[in-house]
Every structure is written in structure tokens, then in C-alpha cells.
Amino acid sequence: MYIIERASFLRIWLELFRVYPAQAEYVKAYNKNVIEKNLRAERNVVKSKRGHQSYLLYTSEHTMIQIWRITAEQTKQIELPQDTDLNVITRQLPDGFYSTFRTYGQGTRVIGLKAHLQRLYGPVRSPQVSELTLRKQLGLLLKDYSNEARVRMIMTKQGELYVAIEALKQWPNEIYEKGVKVETVELTRTDPRLKSTRFIGESESERKHIVQKGIFEALIVKNGKILEGLTSNFFYVLRPACPVPSGPGRGTWDAGTGERSEAQSKDSIQEKSSAPRSSRFDYGIEEHNPSAPQENAGTSQREVLCTAQRDILLGVTRRTVIHLARGIGLEIVYEPLKRDQTQVAQEAFITSSSRGIVPVIQIDGEMVGEGSVGAITRQLSVAYEAYVLEKAERI
Fold first, then answer.
1. Which of 100, 157, 161, 339 is surrounded by the most beta carbons within 10 Å?
2. Helical H runs in 69-228?
3. φ, ψ (nearest 5 deg) of residue 218
4. CATH fold of 173-394, please?
5. Contacts with 309 (C-beta within 8 Å, 6 or more apart), sequence order
6. What sign does the CA torsion over 118, 119, 122, 128 have?
7. What is the value of pTM for the model shown?
8. Out of 60-64, 156-160, 252-256, least confident range
């Protein structure tokens, strides 16, 4: 353990310009060996090749990120040995839980902020800062950003709270208009319902790998089924007479009756009843609502929107998309897509709080549908953009 000396010149600069609400000082380095390991890892970051799109997940390009330690008494700006991106910052802090989101309304609103906060406070027994205090401090810190920001909140298992903020980088329109390529990877989350900082380190090699290949996202596979992305949730669209890819004898989607086979229905019931105990951290995100409209009122072919339900993180944007899909009359089927049956998907997309809805046109080199952004994906994207402008929650 050692303490990095305070940067007096930085304190003088802040005093002159009074940009930040709290005095800046360096944070105590928690473990010299861990930090040195992180530094070595950063030197080995693979830079994106020429010709690769600018939307790659992992980059070694330095960006201005401000980091704060928030306590009940004060909010202090801190610095870490490496601050090149949010994941690098997160790995230098003690293990805990985190949530990342973008702002709307010039830094004053967030979609699903309550759910983001519960990701931190749900699993921690003794938080050192109340939710109300965190909201107030977020509001103050974001006033220094003239446009939108990307925010990561981190709470350690001991209840210490950190916030990292960077100016929001808008994703190029190309990824929304033309779609992206993804690949699958065998990777296991210890507890998928918890957004643990430990998983950032566990998945680091795969993050670097997809950057090197020019892949937008990696999809996690378990028992041959695609569950979710490293940093996103995964959806796919089926059309009439396409089999629901949930195993032998599970039936097909009947365009005439709008029903699945009885064997499929029983399996869905069994799946819900065997949900893991960790679902107590689902933070009130209800996946199945029997009273919600299930008939297709807005599409002529009665498309089905499918997504995994078990062994995934129940994302905030995922919840919103399911709500919007029901609103346009789509049936929701909670079944993961088998990796060897990706050809049955007519459309696919991933969702996250920072990126919204991103169309997927290729999985493991195999084209999805016609290899272009599908009509359902476009319809949901328009609905989502309208929703966030209207429903974003005040900080």
C-alpha cells in the first residue's frame, strides 16, 4: 500500500478556475502489485487497424475522464495511475458493483435511473452514501458538462462510492443505419444478475480480441445458446412458421393461431418456476406481464420478438424495449437463440443504456436475415428514441 503525493499544481489550477465542486487529490492506491499489473496490461492494448470502423469497443485512445469519491461528508475528485477509459478506471478500484448510462436533457435526465441505482444498493449491505446524496452529487457534477455525458457509478462491496464521468461520444450513424457484426464466445458470469466489476477483468481478453478483429460486440454463449453481449442484451426476430429454437419437440410459431405448441408453453412455465435465487436482485424489472397486450396490432405478419430470460443481466434498456415491443403488438418469447440456428433469425439487435438499440446484421460471419437492418428493428428504434425524450427521469 502506498499513497501517491498530491498534485499541488492541479489544486492551484482548480482554485483559480473553480471548475469542480470539490478539492482534487490523489486517491490512495489500494495495491501496488494490482496497479502495476493493470499498467502492463494497458501497454499491451491492441490498437484498432486502419480501416476498422470508429465504433470499436475497446480503444487505447486517452479521453478526459473525471473521477470522484463520494462520501456522506464530501465529494473529492481523485486521480488514478491510469484513466484511459472507464474499464481501466474500474479495474483499479476494489471489487464491487457498477452501472453505466448516458444522460439526456443536457445532463439533467437519465432513463431508468432508479434501476441503475438499485444495481449498486441492492447487493451491498452497508452503503456509505444514501441514494438521495448520490442523486444530489450527480446533479452537481453534471452541471460542468455543457452537453451530454456518460456516467459510471461504482460501489465497492464495503460500500465505498465512486463516480466517473466523461463527455458522451456519439456513435456514428452508420452503426444504426447499416448494422454491426458480432461474434459468439464461451464465457461465464459468476452471477449474471449482478453487474460485478470483477467481470470487467474476466472478459478483458475477449474485449481486446474483438477490437483486433473489428467486431462490435461479443455474445456470451452457454450450453450452445446465445444469452447476451459482454456489455449488452441480445434480441432476435422470428416470422411466421419459423421454429422457436428451444430444442427438439418444442414446436413452431403458428401464424394462423398466434400460438406456440403446448410443449413449448410447458417449458416456459418450468423455466420461470426454476429461476435462480439471485433474481432477488432483479430490481423490480418485471419480465412477464400477463395483462400486457399479446396480440399483434401493429404488424401484418405477426412477428415474434425473442430474448433470453435466465442467466443474463436484466438490462434497463432491455426492459424498455420489451415494453415498447408489446406496445406495437409484438409477442415476446423468452427463448435464447441457439448458436447453430442463427439462420432462423430474420432480424437481430443488441441494447444498452449508452448505445440504445444497435442492429446486428452478422453473427459469427453468418448473415442475419437479408443482411440489413430489419423493419421491426427500425420501428423499435424510432419508438425508443421517442420514449427516452419523453420518459427520461430527472436526476
1. 161
2. 86-91, 113-121, 131-142, 173-178, 198-202, 204-213
3. -110, 135
4. D-amino Acid Aminotransferase; Chain A, domain 2 (3.20.10)
5. 271, 272, 287, 334
6. negative
7. 0.74
8. 252-256
Which residue reads 465512486 in cell numbers?
Answer: 162
Q: Which residues pair with 306 in a beta bridge?
A: 236, 333
At 303, the amino acid letter reads E
Local structure of residue 312 (DSSP, 8 states): S
pLDDT of residue 181: 97
Segment 144-155 mean pLDDT = 95
Residue 40 three-state SS:
helix
Residue type, 297: A
Rounded distance, CA 97 to CA 283, Å? Answer: 14
CB 116 within 8 A of CB 150: no
Enter the C-alpha cell of residue 98.
457498477
Q: Are 381 and 239 in contact (CB under 8 A)?
A: no
Place of cell 460501489: 155
Rounded Cα distance between 371 and 223, Å, is 26
Contacts of 284 (CB under 8 A, 6+ apart): 115, 118
- Return the amino acid letter for 346: Q
Domain ranges of the chain: 2-167, 173-394
CATH of the structural domain 2-167, one choice from 3.50.50.60, 1.10.10.10, 3.30.470.10, 3.90.76.10: 3.30.470.10
% of residues, the chain, pLDDT over 70: 68
Name the grid cell of 40: 502492463
